[in-house]
């Protein structure tokens, strides 16, 4: 999941579609994110490469829409509704996820087990 | 005041084995009787008031030597007043060797240099005075320029005199085995110089009776200038050149491994040896032969190996293999002497610390018994009985008795008793009382072995050291040189290494460049 600047990033991703849940006047997705290009990457417990400044899922509320859709803790969010999440600030990421006029967010997430699964299936 | 009744708790000599104690006690009593007659036979201790330790402070031998002495010798017993014991013999021979050759040789060099210097200083005055004495009437009078030259000559001579006194007229503190090359060079230079001036003077001035007095005065002034320059050369060669450090000397004492590192400049081997010895006397802890060896109880197990006898005559090549086999077998054999050593060390430490604790308590208590009489306290001083006021010596003797036993036991445990006689302890106590020292300050002399300087007695004859080196001792220091300084029973091995060449770069830091940011790690729930 590390990247070389200037080279295209390749990753095995999973498509997750989350329907936002209405709670009062907020639309919640049911997970928390951490990371961003303005944050300190060394303190990210989920990343393999400690210079990775991507957006990671740090917590998933149980029985929330994200868990139901299959999001897991430690996933790295690569795209949200087509918008890139690998080079955004923390606030930009939050904004992309919490747009009020969207009901559904389609995420592309990657995790280590995906890559291993692909490798196993190829062998 | 009866001084001797205070000494009841103190016995001078410790004893390791019981059989030699008898000999030693008898010997002590006889010797003390012959010396100062103050011995006193108590029921439990032998009291002796020794004036000085029996052996030279630097090369003492431990008490285990005394054990063997008492049991093996049959001829010299030392039990009568008129016999000379082994220790006396070694002491006398040591004093002899230190006395004879050094007296004359020590002063030869400085005397020669002094004569030469005096000769050189008197020469310009002689140049000026001789024409006046011999052919005054024929001289041309010389007015103001001559007077200016006189004044400058006088001041230059004064400067030469003062700086010679400051730099060269010092009592020498070492004699070197070979000539000190720079000093010889300079003396030869001065001699040749002055001699050539005299030669020219004799040929050009005295013979034809030169009448131009101003020329003579200028001639004398030029000599003084040249002497000043030679003195400058001497200053640089003898004093300044070796100030900048260039080599690192590692000095290791061969007997117990005490080592130090020193930085010196460009010196010859003999001068470096003198310098190292100067530092040795004040840096290294005193050499104590009693602390050297492992106790015999631990080593004896290793020593009892099996002996190999070869029975045929031409077995020279077999003997080496057999000895190797023996050594290998001894090494493989399982021995626990390291265990014993470890426990013995721990036990020794514990004992030492216990004795030290007792000593500290005893000394603290003893010091509380006296206090300084306050002069500005008229009420108290008038109440004091005149007999109770003591001078430091009496005060020291008064408080010595309660701590004497603890002190003696402690010194015996740390094997320091040859270095501290009772007299020296009393003197030190008196010194501490006089200068208002605390008990801890009094004890600092005994709890750690001080440098050798602390134990020196005044010796007009000097210490004899032998410089052992593979290179001639006047050669300069360079990398990889090894020489050693030997004394009778130990030696110092000195290794020379050059100091590394330093390449120092520069990095400029703008004071405004010190800026910091917070490390963020936020988590947002969406």
TrEMBL record, chain A:
Residues forming coiled coils: none
MF terms (GO), sorted A to Z: protein kinase binding
Pfam families the record matches: PDZ (PF00595)
Protein name stated in the entry: Tax1-binding protein 3
CDD domains linked to this entry: PDZ_TAX1BP3-like
Domain PDZ span(s) in chain numbering: 15-112
Protein topology in the membrane: Peripheral membrane protein
Cell compartments where the protein resides: Cell membrane; Cytoplasm; Nucleus
InterPro entries for the chain: PDZ, PDZ_sf, Synaptic_Scaffolding_LAP-MAGUK
UniProt keyword Cytoplasm present: yes
Listed PROSITE patterns: PDZ
UniProt entry keywords in alphabetical sequence: Acetylation, Cell membrane, Cytoplasm, Membrane, Nucleus, Phosphoprotein, Wnt signaling pathway
Top-level taxonomic group: Eukaryota
GO cellular component: adherens junction; basolateral plasma membrane; cytoplasm; nucleus; postsynaptic density; postsynaptic membrane
Xref: SMART domains: PDZ
A single BP term in Gene Ontology: Wnt signaling pathway
Entry-linked PANTHER family: DISCS LARGE, PDZ DOMAIN-CONTAINING PROTEIN
Alphabetized SUPFAM superfamilies for the sequence: PDZ domain-like (SSF50156)
UniProtKB/TrEMBL annotation, chain B:
Region annotation Disordered: where it falls in the sequence: 1-91
Gene Ontology CC: plasma membrane
Compartments (UniProt record): Cell membrane
Biased composition (Basic and acidic residues): 34-43, 58-68
Regions that span the bilayer: 107-129, 149-168, 180-200, 220-240
Major place of residence: membrane
UniProt entry keywords in alphabetical sequence: Cell membrane, Membrane, Transmembrane, Transmembrane helix
Keyword Transmembrane: yes
Entry similarity comment: Belongs to the Vang family.
Protein name: Vang-like protein
Organism: Coregonus suidteri
């Amino acid at each position: 999941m590390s990247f070389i600047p200037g080279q295209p990033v390749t990753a095995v991703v999973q498509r997750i579609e989350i329907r936002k849940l209405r709670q009062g006047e907020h639309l919640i997705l049911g997970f928390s994110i951490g990371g961003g290009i303005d944050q300190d990457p060394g303190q990210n417990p989920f990343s393999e490469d400690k210079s990775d400044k991507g957006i990671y899922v740090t917590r998933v509320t149980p029985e929330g829409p994200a868990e139901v859709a299959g999001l897991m803790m430690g996933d790295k969010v690569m795209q949200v509704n087509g918008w890139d999440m690998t080079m955004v600030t923390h606030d930009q990421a939050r904004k992309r996820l919490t747009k009020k006029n969207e009901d559904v967010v389609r995420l592309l997430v990657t995790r280590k087990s995906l890559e291993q699964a692909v490798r196993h299936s190829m062998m | 005041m009866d001084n001797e009744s205070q000494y009841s708790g103190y016995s001078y000599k410790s004893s390791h084995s019981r059989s030699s104690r008898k000999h030693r006690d008898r010997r002590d009593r006889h010797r003390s009787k012959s010396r100062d007659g103050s011995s006193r036979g108590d029921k439990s201790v032998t009291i002796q008031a020794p004036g000085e330790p029996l052996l030279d402070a630097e090369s003492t031998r431990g008490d285990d030597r005394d054990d063997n002495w008492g049991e093996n010798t049959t001829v010299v017993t030392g039990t009568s007043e008129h016999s000379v014991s082994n220790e006396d013999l070694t002491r006398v021979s040591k004093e002899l060797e230190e006395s004879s050759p050094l007296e004359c040789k020590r002063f030869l060099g400085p005397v020669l240099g002094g004569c030469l210097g005096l000769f050189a200083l008197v020469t310009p005055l002689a140049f000026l005075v001789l024409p006046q004495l011999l052919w005054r009437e024929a001289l041309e009078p010389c007015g103001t320029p001559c007077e200016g030259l006189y004044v400058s000559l006088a001041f230059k001579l004064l400067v030469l005199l003062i700086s010679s006194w400051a730099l060269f007229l010092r009592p020498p503190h070492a004699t070197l085995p070979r000539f000190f090359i720079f000093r010889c060079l300079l003396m030869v230079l001065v001699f040749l110089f002055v001699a050539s001036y005299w030669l020219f003077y004799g040929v050009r001035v005295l013979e034809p009776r030169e009448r131009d007095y101003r020329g003579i005065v200028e001639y004398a002034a030029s000599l003084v200038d040249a002497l000043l320059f030679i003195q400058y050369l001497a200053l640089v060669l003898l004093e300044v050149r070796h100030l900048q450090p260039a080599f690192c000397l590692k000095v290791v004492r061969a007997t117990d491994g005490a080592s130090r590192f020193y930085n010196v400049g460009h010196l010859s081997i003999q001068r470096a040896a003198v310098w190292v010895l100067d530092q040795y006397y004040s840096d290294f802890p005193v050499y104590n032969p009693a602390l050297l060896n492992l106790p015999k109880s631990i080593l004896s197990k290793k020593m009892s190996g099996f002996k190999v006898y070869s029975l045929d005559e031409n077995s020279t090549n077999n003997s080496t293999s057999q000895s190797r086999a023996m050594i290998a077998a001894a090494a493989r054999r399982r021995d626990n002497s390291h265990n014993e050593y470890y426990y013995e060390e721990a036990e020794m430490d514990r004992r030492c610390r216990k004795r030290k604790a007792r000593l500290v308590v005893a000394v603290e208590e003893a010091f509380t018994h006296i206090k300084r009489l306050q002069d500005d306290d008229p009420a108290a001083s008038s109440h004091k009985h005149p007999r109770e006021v003591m001078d430091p010596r009496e005060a020291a003797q008064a408080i010595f008795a309660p701590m004497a036993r603890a002190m003696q036991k402690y010194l015996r445990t740390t094997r320091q008793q040859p270095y501290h006689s009772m007299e020296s302890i009393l003197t030190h106590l008196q010194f501490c009382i006089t200068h208002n020292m605390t008990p801890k300050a009094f004890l600092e002399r005994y709890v750690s072995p001080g440098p050798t300087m602390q134990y020196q007695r005044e010796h007009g004859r000097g210490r004899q050291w032998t410089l052992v080196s593979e290179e001639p001792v006047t050669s300069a220091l360079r990398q990889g040189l090894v020489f050693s300084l030997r004394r009778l029973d130990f030696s110092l091995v000195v290794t020379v290494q050059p100091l590394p060449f330093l390449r120092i770069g520069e990095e400029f830091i703008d004071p405004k460049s010190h800026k910091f940011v917070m490390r963020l790690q936020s988590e947002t729930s969406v």
